[in-house]
Amino acid sequence: MYILTAVIPVYGISRNIENLRKVLVDIPQSIQVILVHDTTDGENVSLLKEIATPSNFTILEAVGGSAGKTRNHAIPFIKSEWTVFWDADDRPFPMAILEAIHDSVTGVSDLIVGSFSRSTRNSLDQEDHSGRTHGIHPKDSFLTEFGIWRCIFRTTEIKDVYFDDLKIGEDLSYILRTLPSLSHKICFSNNKFYEYRLNTQGSVTNSELLNSDFEEALLVISNLGVKGDLETELKHQILLGLRLSQFKRFPSFLKLLKLVSSCFQNPMAVYNKVREMLRK
Q1: In what order do the strands lie in the sheet with 57-62?
Q2: The predicted structure's pLDDT at residue 123
């Protein structure tokens, strides 16, 4: 049994292959890597097979169409105590993650949350490989910056939890559905687990056709029925446009924020009004 499993959906092998090559070379044998090729990209999986040769690597092929649906194909194949979800165009820090697992209190933590950074740089060679964060404790930002890639889940707690079939917001809805059972068993690490790449070529967050996915995400979140403190934090997430700052290019963005803020106590009203505004 592995210590950790990293699930990586891959859409667009040719544009992600160099980044994956540099990331995967640092993966130790104690980590199981499951690469799920979303075949809707129309690309041949042979390129992926060339770099995923170690025995701890598994390649699956699936008709995904979204990051959430693609990840779901990997869940039955996870063979580890802990699980992380990474993207093919970002930079994880596996040794920092393993260190955090080692430092956590055995049997107490079911979710370990670390720090992360954002970057628009394309070259891994220019980056800080230390995996350390400086001055910001992850606990201070977790509720307003969920980010599934900064989370290490105990596998037994999520083995029956699947992602919604969304291109946007699937990570947020996943975390919100798992938090109620994990919230009393969270520990925080000062290690930097991940560097999230902004606006990489072909990424969903670089697309101009986001309205339908944004609506879907709002519908899923609205139906979660989250109350109390999590409801307050979910409000922040919606106000952040599911962390997609490019929604600011909509002329009505500020009006949208005020509207969502004013009617959040009625989640379905939020969904319906946002959908109406985005379609104008």
Answers
A1: 57-62, 31-38, 2-10, 80-85, 151-154, 111-119, 186-197, 91-92
A2: 44
Range of the domain at 241: 208-278
Last residue of a domain, which of 150, 175, 204?
A: 204
Question: Are 138 and 272 in a shared domain?
Answer: no
Angle at CA of residue 210, ends 250 and 229, nearest 5°: 85
Cα dist from 253 to 6, 246, 249, whole Å:
36, 10, 7
pLDDT of residue 136: 44
| 92 φ/ψ angles, rounded to the nearest 5 degrees | -90, 160
CA dist 171 and 68 (Å) reads 8
Quick one: residue 241, left, alpha or beta (phi over 0 = left, psi -120 to 50 = alpha)?
A: left
> Domain end: 153, 174, 204, which one?
204
pLDDT digits (tens, 9 = 90+) for 150-193: 999 999 999 889 988 776 667 877 887 787 677 678 888 889 99
CA distance 88 to 8: 6
User: Does residue 176 share a domain with residue 253?
Assistant: no
pTM strictly above 0.85: no
How many domains, in total, are found in the chain? Answer: 2
Whether residues 267 and 166 share a domain: the answer is no
Q: What CATH number is given to the structural domain containing 172?
A: 3.90.550.10
**Judging by DSSP bridges, how do beta strands 80-85 and 2-10 pair with one another?**
parallel
What does the alpha-carbon distance between residue 186 and residue 165 come to, in Å, rounded to a whole number?
A: 26
What spatial distance separates the first Cα and last Cα of the chain, rounded to whole Å? 53
